[in-house]
Amino acid sequence: MTDNYTQFANRGLGKKVTKKLGLPQPAILRRYQPGQALITGPILVQGSTAGADALAASLLSWDLDVRRHAVPREKLGAIVLVLDELDRPEDLEGPVLAAASSLRDLSPSARVITLSRPAANSADPSQAAARQGVDGFLRSLAQELRSGATGNGILLADGVTATSPSALAAVRFFLSGRSAYVDGQFLTVTSPDGTLPADIGQPLAGKVAVVTGAARGIGAAIARTLHRDGATLVLVDIPAAGDHLAAVANEVHGTALQLDISREDAGQRIIDHAVQRHGHLDIVVHNAGITRDKLLANMDHARWSSVINVNIAAQLRINEALLASEHFRTSPRIVSVASTSGIAGNRGQTNYAASKGGVMGMVRASAPLLAENGGTINAVAPGFIETDMTARIPVALREAGRRLNSLRQGGQPTDVAEAIAFLASDAAGGINGVVLRVCGQNVVGA
Amino acid sequence: MSVEGQSASGPQESSPQVAHATVPTPRRAVVVGGNRIPFARSGGAYTKSSNQDMLTAALDGLIARFGLQDERIGEVAAGAVLKHSRDFNLTREAVLGSALSAETPAYDVQQACATGLETVLGLANKIKLRQIDSAIAGGVDSASDAPIAVSEGLRQVLLDLNRAKTLPQRLQVISRLRPRDLAPDAPNTGEPRTGLSMGEHQALTTAQWGITRDAQDQLAFASHRNLAAAYDAGFFDDLLTPYRGLTRDSNLRADTTLEKLATLKPVFGRNLGAEATMTAGNSTPLTDGASTVLLAAEEWADAHDLPKLAAVVDGEAAAVDFVHGKDGLLMAPAFAVPRLLARNGLSLADFDFYEIHEAFAGTVLSTLAAWEDEEFGRTRLGLDGAFGSIDRAKLNVNGSSLAAGHPFAATGGRIVASLAKMLHAKGAVEGRPARGLISICAAGGQGVVAILEAL
Fold it and tell me: In this complex, which of A245, A246, A277 lies closest to B305 when CB atoms are compared?
C-alpha cells in the first residue's frame, strides 16, 4: 500500500503543511486497473516527421483524443515528442519548446514520451550529438514533472518506425497506468517484430508462464498480474515456502511447483511440469533471488556463493535447458529481475550487485539466441519497492530510499510486475536484450 | 482445469453399458499424487491448529499442486480419530474452506489408525465402479487440540438441568453434583474393553514374539535415517507443503544413533516379568498432522493432464479377538495380508516395497515374526507352513511412523502417496509393474492392508 507519508501529503492539512515546509510531495500514482481508459485527456503529438504523422494516426485509431497543436489552457493527458529524424543538435529546439508551453497544462499522472533514435547507431558526429541530446533532455524533464507525471523515451533502432508493433506497444505501456513507477527511462525497440494482441485486456491469453520466487512479494505480484493478463501460471519457489506458494497458486488458479532453482535439474523439471500440466511453455520470469548482505571485508564463501548461485548461475542453467528444449521455440519470452544495485552499486551488496550485474550481461548476450526462434529476453531493474524485504531496512535509510527519486515514493510490487507482463507480451516481440528500470527515476544509477 | 473436464465427472456419463440389473465393468483407480503437511509432535507447532485447519491446509496444498481450483471432485472422504462433536461434518467443512468447488460432496470416515487407508480403498472402489471419476482421500488428527469431555456425572446433570422447568427443580438437579464430577474426561489410547493402553497391549505381543530391544532400536534407527535421507534427496518436495513454520516432520531426529536409542528407559511392559523393551524411541509419539491423496479414473487424469503414479489394486481388512488374548491388539494385518495375497495370487516375496506402519517397532517385528513362524502359518493362517519373509532392504525405505510421527488418521494418506511415488519412479521390475504392499494396524484389534502397482 501507499506509505503513510504519501497518504498524509495527499490529505487536506498534510498537503498544506508539506507544501509550506518544502517537504517532498509524493502523488498518488495512476495505476492500471482492468477496464481503465488508457489515458484521460487529449494527447499532444509534437513533431513534423512522417513518423509523427503516422503515430498520430495510430493513436487516433485507438479512439484517443489527439492534438497536433496545443489548445491554450486545455488539460492534457500526455505529450508525445516524435524526434525520429534529428540530424543536428539545433533540431531539438522546435519540438521541445513547443512542448514546453504545454507543460503547465499536464494533468496529474500525465505522460511525456519521446521517440528518437539510439545515438550509438550513428557514425555522424552531429547526428549522434542530437540523438544523445535527447537522453539528457528527457531525464532532466522527467525530474521537473510533478503530480505523478512521468517522462520516458523510446529509442527506435534502425529499421524500426514510430508505428512498428513494439514501438506502438511501448507508447501504450508508457501512456497507461502500467508504467506508473517507470520514470526517466529509455526503452529500445530493437526490431520491427511483435504482434499487437487480439484482446487488449488479455494480452497474455493462451500463454503458459513460469514465475520463480512466486510465493511472496514481487513474485506473487508478477503471478497476479500475468494471471490478470490471461496467462496460465506455473509458480515455483523453494519447498520451504510451499505454504505461501500454494496460497498464491490457488488465488491465481495456477499450479505450484516446489523446487529449489539452484538444483542441477531445475530447468528440466520446470519444462516437464509446464508441458505435462499445461501442454506448452511460453514465458519464464526469473524472479527468485536472495540477499546475503555484508561488507566485502566481512564476506565469506557461504554468503557470496549462495547469492551468485541462486541469482545468476541458476538462471544461466535454466536458460540453457530452455534453449535446448523443443517445447520453448514458439516466440519464447524470458524476463529476468535485475536490480538498480547491479547498475549503481550498493554498499554491503557486492555479492548481490555482482549477481544482478550478471543478469544484465546474461540478458544482452542471450538476446541473439532467443531471437533465433522469434523470442526475446529482457530484464527489469527495480529500484526501491515496498516489500517485506525493504520493510526490514532501518527507518531512516528506508525513508531516504523511498524519497530519493523523482516520484518521491517507493514503488509497489505490481509496478515491477506490470513492466514484466509488458515485456512478456507478443506486442513486445521487437524489444530484445534490454534492461528497463522501474525505479521512479532513482537518483542512483544511470 | 477445463470446464469440459468438470462436466465429464459424474456418474451419469461414466458407464454407457449399464443396464438394468447388470454390474458395470470395473475400471482402474489410480493415485495421481498426494499432499500432506509436516507432522508435528503434539504440543508443538500445531498446538493451536484444529483438525479442520490442518485438513484444509493439506487440501489447499493438494489443490495448488494439481491445479484443482474450483474443480468439482467426485467425492472427498477423510476423517479423524480424536474428533470434537462439533466436527460432525469435518471433511465437508474443510472442503468448503478450501479452494475446491463448493459443489464437491464430502463425508467422514473413522476406522482408528486405518482411517486414511480405508478412505483410499473406499473411494478407489467407487472409481472402479464408475460411480465417481475423481476423489480425494485423507485424514487428520490432533493430539494437541483433542476434545475434552465432561465427566458422565456432570453430563447427566447438565442434560437434566436443561430439561428442568422450575427453580426448585433446577436446584434439586444441581444438588446432585459431586466434586469428582468436575474432573474432565480426556481422550486416551486405552482400549475400552481391556483398560490397557495400546503400548501395554503391544508390550504383551512384543514379549510373546520374543522381539529384542536391539531389534526394535535398529528399526527405529533405520526409520529416522531413511526419512532424513528422503528429505535430503528432495523426495518430499512434491508430497508435502509446509505449515505453520514447519518444513519437516518435527519428530525426525536426523542425528540419532543406536547408542542414543539404547539409553532410553522402557515405558511400556514394565510389569510383565520379562525384560521391558519398548521405549519412547521405538514407539510413535502423539502427533498432529493431516494428509490427502488425489485418486482418479485414468480418463479423468488424462483429461486433466495429470500424472498417474500407481493403481490401487486391492485391499483387505481383518480384525482379531484381542479381548480374550487370542491375538495381539495390533496383529490383524498378519491375517489380512495372507488373505489379500491369496486373492491376488501373490506371495509375500512378490513385492518391491513394503510399507508396514510403525505404530511401534515391536508391531512391525511381531508381524514379520508371525509370518516367518511355521506354527503360526499352520495353526492360525491355515497354511502348510510359514507364510513367508520379506527382504528387509525393501521395508519402509523412505522412513515410516517412528520417524515421521503418527497423526492417527493421517498415516494412511502419507503412506499411499509416498508409495505411489516410489512405485512410479521404480517403473517395471522383471517385466512386470513394480508392486507395493501397505499394512496398517488399528485400535480395536483391526488392520487394513492394500496393494498398489506402478503405472
Answer: A277
ipTM of the complex: 0.89
Looking at chain B from residue 213 to 242, which residues have their Cβ under 8 Å from any Cβ of chain A? 234, 236-238, 240-242
Q: Nearest chain B Cα to A238, which residue?
A: B237
Active site residue B324: no
Question: In whole angstroms, how large is the CA radius of gyration of chain B?
Answer: 23
Give the domain-ending residue among A162, A189, A216. Answer: A189
Judged by DSSP in three states, A411 sits in strand
pLDDT digits (tens, 9 = 90+) for B165-215: 888 888 888 888 888 888 777 767 678 888 888 999 999 999 999 999 999
The per-residue pLDDT for A3 is 80
With CA atoms as reference, report the closest residue to B26 among B178, B128, B169, B171.
Answer: B128
**Cβ-based neighbour number of residue B14 at 10 Å:** 21
Nearest Cα residue in chain B from A252: B69
CA A16, chain centre distance (Å): 33
Residue-number span of the structural domain to which A130 is assigned: 39-189
Q: What are the backbone angles phi and psi of residue A11, rounded to the nearest 5°?
A: -100, 165
User: Hey, are the CB atoms on A256 and B70 less than 8 Å from each other?
Assistant: no
Question: pTM for the whole thing?
Answer: 0.90
Q: Are strands B40-41 and B134-141 parallel, antiparallel or unpaired?
A: unpaired
Largest Cα–Cα distance in chain A? 64
pLDDT digits (tens, 9 = 90+) for B351-370: 999 999 999 999 999 999 99
Asked if residue A426 belongs to a domain, the reply is: yes
Do A408 and A335 have their domain in common?
Answer: yes
Residues of chain B in contact with residue A239, where contact means CB-CB under 8 angstroms, are 234, 236-237, 240, 242, 247
DSSP states of B369-431 as a string? Answer: HHHH-HHHHHHTT--SS------GGGBSTT--HHHH-B-GGGHHHHHHHHHHHHHHHH-EETT
Q: Which residue of A has its CA nearest to B236?
A: A239
In this predicted structure, which of A11-15, A335-339, B265-269 has the lowest mean pLDDT? Answer: A11-15
User: Does residue A353 sit within a domain?
Assistant: yes
Looking at the structure, tell me whether residues A147 and A243 fall in a common domain. no
Q: Is residue A363 situated within a structural domain? A: yes
Structurally, how many domains does chain A consist of? 2
Cβ-based neighbour number of residue A93 at 10 Å: 10
Q: H-type helices in A85-151, by residue range?
A: 93-100, 125-144
